[in-house]
Amino acid sequence: FLVLGILTADLASGIVHWGADTWGSVDMPFIGRNFLRPFREHHIDPTSITRHDFIETNGDNFAVTVPYLFYMAHKFTYWNETDIRRIYNFEVYMFLLAIFVSMTNQFHKWSHTYFGLPSFIVFFQNYHVILPRKHHRLHHVVPHDTYFCITTGWLNWPLEMIKFWPWLESIVEKYTGAKPRSDDFAWAQKTEKVHCY
């Protein structure tokens, strides 16, 4: 269940990251400013995440897991023992998934932190238990169209081998007409103007 929870969290992180990096514009109402912009800014200043406190880094991911964890607590409190046994394995998987979803942005932050990490975190990175620094650097090469999974990064290589992201992009483009990363050039021009002044 542990490995399945990690793999699911890694895939989910990749899909969210890919979606935010690839589609839409930072000028879109609400979503652009609140969701897409932080992803695009992260490409320009990758170490900005290291200046965020724990809540700013992890709050959104923790919030996503809370409703299901409350529901899980309700089941374990009020359901009878027979029903709990029937769902127990699934709930263990969901609990582990919630832990790794909650910690994804922290693992990502540590992959951009080059000084002052506790030795056990560096050990986990070196042995690819969590997202390693060198591994994640591959995503930060323009045009940022690869290695999207940021929980552990375990799925990055297999997904690249099967050309998962280009395949997904071709499907979205075929049915919507939207071009992947079409906002990147406009976004780069805006940020260059800001940095020129």
Description:
The chain has 197 residues and is an all-alpha fold. It has one domain. The chain has helices at residues 2-22, 31-44, 54-78, 81-111, 119-126, 133-137, 156-161, 164-176, 184-196. It is globular, with a radius of gyration of 19 Å. The chain starts with a helix and ends with a helix. The relative contact order is 0.15. It is a multi-pass membrane protein. It is found in: Membrane.
Helix content: 55-70%
Q: Structural class of the helices, strands and pairings?
A: mainly alpha
Task: Give the strand content.
Answer: under 5%
Parts with pLDDT < 50 across at least 5 consecutive residues:
193-197
Number of helices: 9
- First CA to last CA: what distance? 52 Å
Mean of pLDDT: 92
Helix and strand pattern: HHHHHHHHH
Number of domains: 1
Shape: globular
Q: Characterize the largest beta sheet: strand count, sense, and whether it forms a barrel.
A: none
Family: Belongs to the fatty acid desaturase CarF family.
GO molecular function: oxidoreductase activity
Pfam families: Lipid_desat
Keywords: Membrane, Transmembrane, Transmembrane helix
